[in-house]
Amino acid sequence: MLELMVDGDEDFVAVDDYGDVPPIPFKAADVAEMQPRWDAIAQALANIIDFDYGAWENQGILRRIGSSQDPFGHVSAVLLFLPPGHLGDYHGLFRELSSRTESTVLFPTSRWFTVEMEALRVRNHLEFVDLTERLAKIEAQPAVKVPLPAIIKPRGPAQPRIRAVLHAGNGLTWSQVRIEIAGNQTIHLKAPGQEGAHSFSKRNQLGPEHPLGILMTLAAKGEWRNPHGSSPDYDRVSKAFQRLQTLLRTLVPLPGNPFRKSAGAFVPIFQIRIHPKLLGGGP
After folding, report:
1. Is residue 115 within 8 Å of 139, Cβ to Cβ?
2. Which among 8, 39, 202, 203 is placed 20 to 30 Å from 94, CA to CA?
3. Helices 131-140 & 38-49, crossing angle to 10 degrees?
4. Where residue 158 falls among pLDDT bands split at 50, 70, 90?
């Protein structure tokens, strides 16, 4: 492997780091950058092995390229590893995976499945998929759909069982999501060709910083503003708003943020309204 360096205004020279090979001149017309087309690869894999594509990340050798949803509505990240072919690829992969949890990881082949990697998989609640083997099975039996392995997520006794209610595939964006605040502490979520609902626990007291209270403010004012950073309420209110964002991205597992910042305010990218019955406006 030679390092390509600029030699003059337009031409290049390929240099061997160890000096075993003399420099090789190249014309600019003969040089082209070769790198994986991540988006094209990810979209093709999503169609073939059946997960919801989404360009969550655009840097690194390990990237989140979508989401997988099991029959119970639990959503987990789908990661793709594409090694560039360097000596440090394995150590770089191990370092990257050490910070990932509860994800399905797509590998080009099973040669990366070492004893150390298996221990990391178990510890971080990951699932590994050998793409060479998976694609060979699909080619041999195209009519048989084998779902991606389910992620067994550790769950504390007090942790709520919140599940996704909308699928994030088919190019869905936050601007296509509609949220309607209905009665009985329930919200309805709709997108082209699908809809679902989420009900809040009635054991929790409603208030301005309850997720439902924040959603009602968003529907009424079209934006949300946290208190000034010097306010004693800033930490409490900003954390409440962050919990709402986490909830929305769980219910609708889309890449990107459901809000955009505008002059210090958080403006929803999705559409939101209060049901007319709650406003006394009839059906």
Report:
1. no
2. 39
3. 50
4. very low
Structure tokens at 139: 């080619």
Residue pair 238/154 in contact by the 8 Å Cβ criterion: no
| DSSP 8-state class, residue 30 | G
- DSSP3 helix / strand / coil % (the chain, rounded to 5): 30, 25, 45
Beta bridge partners of residue 274, listed in sequence order:
181
Amino acid found at 272: I
Q: Letter for the amino acid at 182?
A: A
User: Is the distance from CB of 51 to CB of 148 less than 8 angstroms?
Assistant: yes
- 252: part of which helix (H) or strand (E)? none
> What is the DSSP secondary structure assignment for residue 108, as one 8-state letter?
S
CA dihedral 216, 218, 222, 228 (to 10 degrees): 130
Tens-digit pLDDT profile for residues 20-72:
788 888 888 888 777 889 999 999 999 898 888 888 888 899 999 998 877 66
Residue with tokens 């119970």: 72
pLDDT digits (tens, 9 = 90+) for 236-275: 888 889 889 988 988 888 878 899 998 889 999 999 998 8
What is the distance between the alpha carbons of residues 97 and 44, in angstroms, rounded to a whole number? 23
Phi-psi region of 240 (alpha: psi -120 to 50; beta: other; left: phi over 0): alpha
Task: Give the three-state DSSP class for 211.
Answer: helix
* CA distance linking residue 147 with residue 51, whole number of Å: 9
**Number of residues in the chain:** 283
260 Cβ contact list (under 8 Å, min separation 6) = 266, 267, 269
Q: pTM for this one?
A: 0.59
Q: How far apart are CA 130 and CA 117, in angstroms?
A: 13
